[in-house]
Design a protein that fits this description.
Distance between the termini: 40 Å
Structural class: mainly beta
Helix content: under 10%
Strand content: over 45%
Oligomer: single chain
Largest sheet: 7 strands, mixed
Shape: globular
């Protein structure tokens, strides 16, 4: 079955950088559009960015410039590089996958916690 497993979260200080990974299995990774979302305590889930099967990237306007998404199809893995982290970046970060360019995501990971201390 399809599995998306996030890793790389943890406790960091404001201004630090962190790289999250999303390892995919059970699907043809290179054909999927892969995305990152996050959810802070008491808030709705928020779109972070997406990298299409062809490498095109779209980011949340709020996060663009500090966050970078990449993928390695040979490793079936997507990454999220986060720079200049702020306490408000504290959230559970989720990866998601879908075949279509729009609509609901087909698969979700279990999430990884990122906590940024001030």
């Amino acid at each position: 079955q399809v599995q998306l497993v996030e890793s790389g979260g943890g406790l960091v200080q404001a201004g630090d950088s962190l790289r999250l990974s999303c390892a995919a299995s059970g699907l043809t990774f290179s054909t999927y559009n892969m995305a990152w979302f996050r959810q802070a305590p008491g808030k709705e889930r928020e779109f972070v960015g997406v990298i299409a099967w062809n490498g095109d990237r779209t980011y949340s306007e709020v996060l663009k410039g500090r966050f970078t998404i990449s993928r390695d199809n040979a490793k079936n893995t997507m990454y999220l590089r986060m720079n200049l982290l702020k306490p408000e970046d504290t959230a559970v970060y989720y990866c998601a996958a879908r075949l279509r360019s729009g609509g609901d995501y087909d698969y979700w990971g279990q999430g990884t916690q990122v906590t940024v201390s001030s």
